[in-house]
Amino acid sequence: MPFAQIYLIEGRTEEQKRAVIEKVSAALVEALGAPIENVRVWIHDVPKAQWGIGGKTAKDLGR
Questions:
Q1: 2 among known catalytic residues
Q2: Of 20, 28, 49, 55, which has the maximum CB count within 10 A?
Q3: What are residue 22's phi and psi, to 5 degrees?
Q4: Which pLDDT tens digit goes with each residue over 20-47?
Q5: pLDDT > 70: what percent of the chain?
Q6: Are β-strands 3-9 and 40-46 bridged in parallel, bridged antiparallel, or unpaired?
Q7: Which CATH number fits domain 3-57: 3.40.50.300, 3.40.50.720, 3.40.50.2300, 3.30.429.10?
Q8: pTM, 2 dp
Q9: Residue from 2, 8, 12, 59 carrying the catalytic annotation
Q10: How many helices, marked H, and strands, marked E, lie in the chain?
């Protein structure tokens, strides 16, 4: 069973997340030949204060 974990800074819309799930699932089906029913995608929404970029939080950088 293919399982993909995607880490994103919080703030994406439901439509964007849905598109990521659809496209990642399709890519795994194509690359591995796995049945779509067996593909799992987990999106981790990480708070901006907990995402570091260049020694600062994404929140402090205004991301």
A1: yes
A2: 28
A3: -65, -45
A4: 999 999 999 999 999 999 999 999 999 9
A5: 100
A6: parallel
A7: 3.30.429.10
A8: 0.88
A9: 2
A10: 1, 4
